[in-house]
Amino acid sequence: AGDNFGGSVAVSPGLIAVGAPNHDDGGTDVGAVYVFMPDTSEGWIAQKLLPSEGGLRFNFGYSVATSDRDGGTVVVGAPSSYVVGSVYVFVYQANGVFTETAVLRSEDKGDKVDKFGNSVTLSCNTIIVGAQSDDIDLEGKYYYYEDEAIPEMGSVYIFTLLQHGGRLPGWEQTHKIKPADGTRQGNFGYQVAVSTHTVAAIDNSGSAYVQEVC
User: Fold this and answer.
1) 76 within 8 A of 106, measured Cβ to Cβ
2) pLDDT in tens, 75-132
3) Is this prediction's pTM over 0.90?
4) Farthest CA pair distance, the chain
5) What pLDDT, in 10s, does the model give residues 120-136?
6) How far is it, in rounded angstroms, from Cα 169 to Cα 183?
7) Cβ-contact 183, 193 below 8 angstroms
8) CA distances (Å), origin 15, targets 9, 111, 129
9) CB distance 152 to 185 below 8 Å
10) How far apart are the C-alpha atoms of 211 and 213, rounded to whole Å?
C-alpha cells in the first residue's frame, strides 16, 4: 500500500513502464518500476526493476521513459537518490531480462537537493534529464550557497551515447541548458521532451522553452 504505482508511465512499441516511486522493497520509498511486454499467449509479462544501489527515499521511478532501441530501453529517474538525484538506464538482454547498464549523474553535482531526474525522456542516442531544483548563476554554474546563485531556477542536462575508439559506447553529459530568463524557484526542467535535435522544457509557471541541440 502507498507505493504510488502509476506515479509515472511511459509507452513505446511492445513496452510499457510504470513507476512506483514509494515502493518499499529494500527500504522506505526506495521505489520500483514495473515493465510490461506482450507474450505469445496474448498476455503480458511483467518484470520489476530496482536500482542496483537503492537507498531510503530514493524515489526510483518518479519519472520513466522508454524506447524500443536495442530491443527495449527504460530510463528511470530517482530525484532523491544521494540527495542530488540520479538516473538509471536499463536495456533488454537476450535472456529476456532488463539489466541496468548505466547510472547517470550531473558532472557539476553538489550536495544540495537538485532533483536531478525529476523528469526524463529518451530519443535515439539522447537522454534528457530535468533538475528542477538546481541552483545556478547566470553562467550556468553550480554554487552551494544560495546567495551566489538563483535558488531552484532549474536546469536540463543532455546525455549522448558516444563511442571512443574501440571502447563500448557510453552515456556522456554533452550539454547543460538553463533558461535565459530564469527566476527564483522557477523550476525549469519540471517536464522535458525531445525529438531528434529539438529539446523542450517547461517550468512551474507553464512557460515552454525550446532549444536546438546539435
Assistant:
1) no
2) 999 998 887 899 999 999 999 899 999 999 988 765 567 899 999 999 888 999 998 8
3) no
4) 60
5) 999 888 999 998 888 76
6) 37
7) no
8) 11, 35, 21
9) yes
10) 6
